[in-house]
Amino acid sequence: MSTTPVLEPAKAYALWAASYPAHAHNPVMQAEERAMLSLMPSALHDVTVLDAGCGSGRYMLHALRRGATQVAGVDLSHDMLARAHDELDAWQDQAMLSLVQGEVSALPLPDAWADLTLCGLVLGHEARLRESLAELHRVTRPGGIVLCSDFHPIGHALGWLRDFKVDGRRYAAYHVSHLYSHWHAACAELGLVIERVLEPMLDPADIPAGAHFDPVALHVPVALVLRLRRLS
Predict the structure, then answer these.
(1) Closest CA to 173 of 207, 126, 220
(2) 17 falls within a domain
(3) For 122, phi and psi rounded to 5 degrees?
(4) Quick check: 230 and 144 in contact, CB under 8 A?
(5) Which of 1, 60, 172, 226 fits a disulfide with 161 by CB distance 3.0 to 4.6 angstroms?
(6) Residues 25-77: pLDDT tens digits?
(7) Residue 1: its pLDDT value, please?
(8) Is residue 1 part of a domain?
(9) Which domain holds residue 186?
(10) Which residues contact 232 (CB under 8 A, 6 or more apart)?
(11) How many Å apart are CA 83 and CA 57, to the nearest integer?
């Protein structure tokens, strides 16, 4: 019986980047994205936006489409940043854009830089949730919003992997489960108010005909999405 190699995030995304699109490309991501976008302000004119763990630029593009004119993306993977650069090229004349290599747990940005900080499907790659949330708190201005998502801990308990294929071979990225109690304790300690929590479910209409998937996925939440606000 073959097993799926589990790779550290930097190595995983170096392999995955060439085929990683800048949109939600599977039913779980589509469910997560609908929840994230429902909690994101609909108009972002004059709002400074940071996408921490920006990957190929998916949420940077959403921010730009909602009118943001100053957007920064930080990601651990040089290869994913290269993909983001290509995806964002058409927006260069319409907004101030920057892409910087760095880790969510040590963001290369000054204190209180962002009005809105986004962090989509990233913090499960970080074993120390509090330290990463502390950085998101630090770079967000007092009163600003931190919008986070991650794969739901139920999926982790069911043995689901963050897996992908390259040249016909399956790999998985390292991922840990952060329970809601972990989020609650870290936010309380840091001064991040939990304003909303969503637990989106799969939409059966998103599942391609003939797809192989765990049928339990239709009956449990697949993502945990939180809107946080920095108090001071």
Answers:
(1) 126
(2) yes
(3) -120, -40
(4) yes
(5) 172
(6) 999 999 999 999 999 999 999 999 999 999 999 999 999 999 999 999 999 99
(7) 42
(8) no
(9) 6-230
(10) 142, 191
(11) 8
